[in-house]
Amino acid sequence: MEANRPDRDDPLQVTADRRQEPPTRLLPTWLKLTGQGLWCEPGGFFVDPGRAVARAVITHGHADHARAGHDHVLATPETVAIMQARYGDRAGRTLEALPCDQIRRIDGVSVRFVPAGHILGSAQVVLEHAGTRVVVSGDFKRRADPTCDPFEPVPCDLFITEATFGLPVFRHPPDAVAVDRLLTSLNTFPDRAHLVGAYALGKAQRLIALLRQAGCDRTIWLHGALVRLCDLYRDRGVPLGDLALCSGGRRKDMAGEIVLCPPSALADRWSRGFPDPVIAMASGWMQVRQRARQRGVELPLVISDHADWDQLTETIRDVGAPRVLVTHGQEDALVHWARGIGVEADALSLTGYADEGE
Ligand SMILES: [Zn+2]
Ligand SMILES: [Zn+2]
């Protein structure tokens, strides 16, 4: 990308020029942007609210989308199970499970979940009211993922899309590249433990499933924080093969083994005592060398649960919406691209969502 050459094609410049018009002009009158997030007025509910509310519709179980403490939660059965596993009694006073592709009418608004392909149970929210269909993507990806149902494009009047990796420089390499790197390193350094940082919900299970697909059938060792969610995935029919808890006393025996842990554990006391560990991390952000270096990652594994630039633009074409709002990520380039193909587009600043995962 070329810097400091102001011209009309500069996405930042174009967006700045348009800032006088509120981006919410693209929302139908029955959908409002509030401090807590998207609010459906006739239905009386929020989508992925940032704070505890009376009625919440939740796209998926990551903590920045699924908060604790709502009175009433509507989510897919898998997301309800994930929220209960993580929050216990604080998951919500009442939790209503709505399987994908079933319609729930709430005061004249039709609500339907459609798979988003992001993690187990992740869904887009399809809202219909007064002859207008709005799809809120939540987090999504288009890549095949053995741990969840694939994303389905839904034609709509307004598509509200995430843009975590919304820059043309982000093009995720095939997942097999990362899996190969890990297995090759294991062969090359059989005397070293391989500690792999992976988010407890979604990434850890996907990495395990990808390793199994690649023919790796050895025991995979887990940090205690990953056990419960791996069990939940298995209970929901996602095979993960032979897993075992890596308790403190086992660390010295981990030469040549794969040990998965939350990314935060890579830097804390937990990671001491392993034989000459190779520090690895599985994340879409590992394609940014700087991020890998900051975390002291020797073996970056690029595995993302978000759409990259090509998947984002492909999806905007697939849903065919005349209006697009881009949120929580790198909005400006995608807004500019969408306008270039004749779509009315704007950035919608939904705050409170993290980069990836939790
Ligand atoms: Zn998110
Ligand atoms: Zn997420």
Which SSEs are present, and which pair or pack?
Elements: H1 11-18, E1 31-34, E2 37-40, E3 45-47, E4 55-57, E5 72-75, H2 77-87, E6 94-97, E7 103-106, E8 109-115, E9 123-129, E10 132-136, E11 158-163, H3 175-188, E12 194-197, H4 203-213, E13 220-222, H5 224-235, E14 243-245, E15 258-261, E16 278-282, H6 289-294, E17 299-301, H7 309-319, E18 323-329, H8 331-340, E19 344-348
Parallel strand pairs: 3-4, 4-5, 5-6, 10-11, 11-18, 12-15, 12-16, 13-14, 13-15, 16-17, 18-19
Antiparallel strand pairs: 1-2, 2-3, 7-8, 8-9, 9-10
The structure holds zinc ion (2 copies).
One zinc ion is lined by residues 60, 62, 118, 139, 357.
Task: Please describe what this structure looks like.
The protein is α/β, with parallel strands linked by helices and 358 residues long. It folds into two domains: 11-169 and 306-348, Metallo-beta-lactamase, Chain A; 175-301, Rossmann fold. Helix content is 23%, strand content 24%. The longest helix is centred in the middle third of the chain and has 14 residues, at 175-188.
Features:
358 residues; alpha/beta; Metallo-beta-lactamase, Chain A; Rossmann fold; 2 domains; seven-stranded mixed beta sheet; six-stranded mixed beta sheet; 19 strands; 23% helix; 24% strand; globular; disordered N terminus; binds zinc ion
Determine the structural class based on helices, strands and strand pairing: alpha/beta
Beta strands, count: 19
Strand content: 15-25%
Instruction: Output the helix-strand order.
Output: HEEEEEHEEEEEEHEHEHEEEHEHEHE
With strands numbered from the N-terminus, the spatial order across the biggest sheet is 7-8-9-10-11-18-19
Bound molecules: zinc ion
Please give the largest β-sheet: 7 strands, mixed
